[in-house]
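User: Working on a comparison across species. This one is Sorting nexin-17 from Mandrillus leucophaeus. Can you predict its structure so I can line it up against the others?
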Amino acid sequence: MHFSIPETESRSGDSGGSAYVAYNIHVNGVLHCRVRYSQLLGLHEQLRKEYGANVLPAFPPKKLFSLTPAEVEQRREQLEKYMQAVRQDPLLGSSETFNSFLRRAQQETQQVPTEEVSLEVLLSNGQKVLINVLTSDQTEDVLEAVAAKLDLPDDLIGYFSLFLVREKEDGAFSFVRKLQEFELPYVSVTSLRSQEYKIVLRKSYWDSAYDDDVMENRVGLNLLYAQTVSDIERGWILVTKEQHRQLKSLQEKVSKKEFLRLAQTLRHYGYLRFDACVADFPEKDCPVVVSAGNSELSLQLRLPGQQLREGSFRVTRMRCWRVTSSVPLPSGSTSSPGRGRGEVRLELAFEYLMSKDRLQWVTITSPQAIMMSICLQSMVDELMVKKSGGSIRKCGLSSERMLRRRVGGTLRRSDSQQAVKSPPLLVSITSSSEPWLSSKLSAVSLRGIGSPSTDASASDVHGNFAFEGIGDEDL
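Assistant: Here's the predicted structure for Sorting nexin-17 from Mandrillus leucophaeus:
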């Protein structure tokens, strides 16, 4: 997640009290909440009490007198760095203290009272699942409500996630972000004030080996099947005419497991595709379509004559990556910071091991750059869990969360359930793909390459534990 405080606001106090400076906290470029310095100071003090001062990043000190405009801007920058550092810390960023603070602030900023509401969640095939939740329910609460509605077992909930998407005119989904533990899904989607934005349930893992766990259950099998059919119809999964014929035959026979087994062998199975964007590889300003999956980023482009080419960048060869944002001022503008700016330009840049001892930065310019970065991090996390012998299987709900389920509410397993509908038969879709980059890169040791390049400061860079933690045999 990318936290930023791009601007401040001067606001009047309650009941005509003295004015104060409010800090607008943005998550992935979208306003999440508006807070005062004193609230952030209270969060800092609580975190220090729980984890100790030596764990926390520096917090901007109090001032005895009113701040000048320059000091306000300096404090804004310091608070932004503080929030980013806390979020990126594995201990602090996952703490209930930090996440509950952001949830409360989001609800207060959007002025949404706590009440029971209906919330619509879509499956990958467009099927609607209507659930009753509280406006104050966090992401995990909503995910559990969807699972209960579909009769998905508790131990399979961890294999799925909720995503915020924007539905385009052609019905395709443009993925905005994965909903996080620090936000309230109902508030997140309604605060955007547009019918284009939806919440979608989709599998959250990358390694198709985990499909075996999910397919043991009828509901899990149906969810995977519906998602795969949808991905093929959208052209996300690349199929030949013969493969398409075989898939359609299996679909007609309702052989869902066999259908998925064949789909697992196809290029881009289980990948997440992003909107068309621009990269500086293989040349500057090259139009590409980026997909994430199978521990790689895939860049597809069409050459003259409509010939499709694909470059694959393995996550284990990425030394590090960073997301940068810039908001160019209009020509001739002298606007103050955070005012009168144009549209935010986001870039994902990663340092890639092109050949032995040769690292090169590759930059992708896309409004979905942050989502791409999140995908990279989750692929690295999954690789490291697998390497350590761990599992992503969820062992059921904790006793605390079981007690939080509302008696008489919609989270009980006995409530009315909804079946996953079988998708219509596949329409004819054909694609071709030719290996381009990955086959030309020889497997080399990733140990001892050195520290990241000095092009970016350490606070801007996501270090990749899989780069040094995954050996040659895994490449």
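For your comparison, note: The longest helix spans residues 69-88.

User: Helpful, thanks.
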